[in-house]
Amino acid sequence: MKFEDYRITEGIKTSISKLGYKKPTDIQFKAIPPILRGEDVLAIAQTGTGKTAAFAIPILHVLQERKITGRPDGVKCLVMAPTHELALQIDSVFKVLGKHTRITSFCIHGGVDQDPQIEQLNEGVDVLIATPGRMFDLVSQGALQLRRVEILVLDEADHMLDLGFIKDINDLMRHLPRKRQTLFFSATINEKIKNLAYSLVTNAIRIQISPKDPVAKNIEHAVANVEMDDKRFFLEYLIKDHPDKKILVFVRTKVRAERVKKALERVDIPSDTIHSDKLQKDRESTMKAFRSGELKILIATDVSARGIDIPDVEYVVNYDLPETSEHYVHRVGRTGRANKSGQAVSFCSAEEQELLKEIEENLGKPIKRIEISKNDYNSTVNFSEDKTHNWKTLMKEAEEEDIKHKKKKKKKKLKK
Ligand code: AMP
């Protein structure tokens, strides 16, 4: 099946071909027809499968067919996403695919002034993409009406639950018409997600993409045993070994993100970080630089990088192992997007072996091991250009950063 064969508005087909999409991905093949028919959909799809276009294409078509021009009569489709980055990214997919239609999309999220958002809403928006926090603020102020919503999309629902948005989602339902189409997307499934899904959808078409192998087949992933204090040497080696590659490095905490950035700085490797302590405008400019390739190394925490789609990430490095296998799937899913090949490597220290075991159990199969001989291990450590730092200075640096972070947290708490 090709996109030309679909009964969708020509303008959307033009955008699809401009994007270079030749044929629908699995999730698009399965989800587009029922969405066009107006049915509810419950989709369990792994990351990077093309799921945004799987709902954006039929939604744009349905609204374009129905739209009464020149009358701003309220939001018709509401897309809820867990993070700013994901919301902005979904908005950009709607904008690109909807370029030759009359449908307008708009993204609202916190961390920026709300007045321009209210102004835009008053002018009329067809598709609203929102993170839960700012949306509830605007709804409770009466600045956002949701009575005309015909289609509700919940994207990355599992992540919304992780972030504690369940109450917000349930509260929101009171503001939405009962008669609506609901599309529910989640990368993973468990009892809690099932309960949420079944409370929102009616007679949904269920779609599941590769449930047995949550890591896409085009991703080569492996793990290397590296001690905690040596990880930076291995990262330095890997980056220098792949000088032109776009590499996304995952760490466990914001403090560690900054620490890894500093360690790379000392060996003249430019990098940047993304995490929730950074200002929204800085996060956006960092993402822009990474997207364009101007920035090659991005160090991220799980929350900030979930769901984001960056073209051509050739390597994902789990500098720290993630806490759960779901996070593992999401992290490695940042590479190998839409049939491109990708590589992911995890650095696993002795303390993290237990985590690795759990991740493998949940994946249902072992992750390939990279065997490093003692000689190779030592020469990687010695390869480092970071000769000025011995473990004592590093420990001191780490302690200082921890104290700084704790102070900041305390200050924040006091402010509240
Ligand atoms: P998503 O899972 O929505 O984040 O999409 C992952 C990537 O797949 C994005 O970079 C899309 O531009 C790309 N993509 C989506 N649909 C297709 C398609 N039919 N053919 C090729 N690439 C696609």
Strand count, sense and barrel status of the largest sheet are: 7 strands, parallel
Task: Please give the share of residues in helix.
Answer: 40-55%
State the CATH architecture of the largest domain: 3-Layer(aba) Sandwich
Q: Ends: how far apart?
A: 55 Å
Topology-level CATH name of the largest domain: Rossmann fold
Structural notes for this entry:
It contains 17 helices and 14 strands. The chain has 416 residues and is an alpha/beta fold. It folds into two domains: 3-209, P-loop containing nucleotide triphosphate hydrolases (Rossmann fold, 3-Layer(aba) Sandwich); 219-404, 3-Layer(aba) Sandwich (Rossmann fold). Helix 2 (26-36) packs parallel to helix 3 and helix 3 packs across helix 4. It is globular, with a radius of gyration of 22 Å. Adenosine monophosphate binds next to helix 3.
Supply the key terms.
7-stranded parallel beta sheet; 416 residues; Rossmann fold; alpha/beta; binds adenosine monophosphate; 17 helices; 14 strands
What is the topological layout?
Blueprint: H1 10-19, H2 26-36, E1 41-44, H3 51-66, E2 77-80, H4 84-97, E3 105-108, H5 115-123, E4 127-130, H6 132-140, E5 151-154, H7 157-162, H8 166-173, E6 181-186, H9 191-200, E7 205-208, E8 219-225, H10 231-241, E9 247-250, H11 254-266, E10 272-274, H12 280-292, E11 297-300, H13 302-305, E12 315-318, H14 325-332, E13 342-348, H15 353-363, E14 368-370, H16 374-383, H17 391-415
Parallel strand pairs: 1-6, 1-7, 2-4, 2-5, 3-4, 5-6, 8-13, 8-14, 9-11, 9-12, 10-11, 12-13
Helix pairs in contact: 2-3, 3-4
The chain binds adenosine monophosphate (AMP).
